[in-house]
Write a structure and sequence with these properties.
single chain, 301 residues, alpha/beta, four-stranded antiparallel beta sheet
Length: 301
């Protein structure tokens, strides 16, 4: 019998595979392609205290080895999420991780406090949002801001909190240590890398926002490097993500130090990819004679 269970901030997942926020809705769109009961966790689309319209279109563009997006965390807000999405996801035997976004400390705390009595297992905190009170600089690009927002959310939260780190910084380890100092229960990395695409025929930007977040296979080696660096520097469990398209990509992140792995952009190309990765990991364990998946976590030093 192969053990695929992992423990994340005190919560046991049946396997390490989960969905990356913004690539899976809140599960409804994918339920006919994916048996949600087989996932370690479902990570929802971003949830804010009030509805967000997101950025103007066009806001998605294909690139070599991935895609750019500038959706802008469009979401219907916490009220609709609580009434519609939580009851749907609660039908399934999987853990529920809510992706929380905001533009001020108060925004985050409003959402977190509203979720305190809901059947939610973990909260993933997006700190790549612009901090409106600090001139639009993202919380995740300033270590002092990372520590401060982590402390504030931790104080409000009933569930364990996962701080999602941005790779668009000089030193990812500094940010990870700031989140750890602020009381984070886990970290997830990496978020998208800022990129740009220009349509040479129209001689204009492919995205209305000019820049967007690059995701997909092109960023996978960066994700592996950053997960490894952070795993060597902090004692928190890590959710690794970035360009995971198959079981070996997920295993690579675990060997670098990730306890769990989120699958994102690949869902758009192949809606069944998470199931294939879950099966692929089990096959890898059988072929390699690995009894417990935890043997893989951080095995490469």
């Amino acid at each position: 019998m192969r053990n695929t269970k992992v423990k994340l901030a005190g919560i046991t997942l049946k396997n390490p595979i989960m969905t990356a926020s913004g690539t899976f809705g809140s599960g409804q769109e994918f339920a006919e392609f994916v048996d949600l009961n087989r996932l370690g966790a479902v990570v929802t689309k971003g949830v804010a205290s009030t509805p967000w319209e997101g950025n103007p279109t066009p806001r998605v563009a294909e690139t070599y080895g991935g895609m750019l997006n500038a959706v802008g965390l469009q979401n219907p807000g916490i009220d609709v999420f609580v009434q519609r999405d939580i009851p749907f996801l609660s039908q399934y035997d999987t853990k529920l991780i809510v992706y929380v976004c905001g533009k001020s400390q108060e925004d985050y705390c409003q959402v977190v406090e509203r979720l305190a009595d809901q059947p939610v297992d973990l909260l993933e905190i997006n700190i790549s949002c612009p901090n409106v009170k600090e001139g639009g600089i993202a919380f995740g690009q300033d270590p002092k801001a990372v520590e401060t927002i982590t402390q504030a959310v931790k104080k409000c939260a009933r569930q364990p909190i996962i701080m999602k780190l941005s790779p668009n910084v000089t030193d990812i380890v500094t940010m990870a240590k700031a989140a750890e100092a602020g009381g984070a229960d886990a970290l997830s990395l990496i978020n998208t890398i800022t990129g740009m695409k220009i349509d040479v025929h129209r001689r204009t930007f492919a995205l209305a926002n000019k820049t967007g977040g690059l995701s997909g296979p092109a960023i996978h080696p960066v994700a592996v490097r950053m997960v490894y660096q952070v795993a060597q520097a902090v004692s928190l469990p890590i959710i690794g993500m970035g360009g995971v398209a198959g079981a070996e990509d997920a295993i690579e992140l675990m060997l670098a130090g990730a306890t769990a792995v989120s699958v994102g952009t690949a869902n758009f190309r192949n809606p069944s990819v998470t199931m294939e990765i879950v099966d692929g990991i089990r096959n890898f364990m059988e072929n390699e004679g690995i009894a417990d998946i935890n043997e893989l976590i951080g095995a490469v030093r």
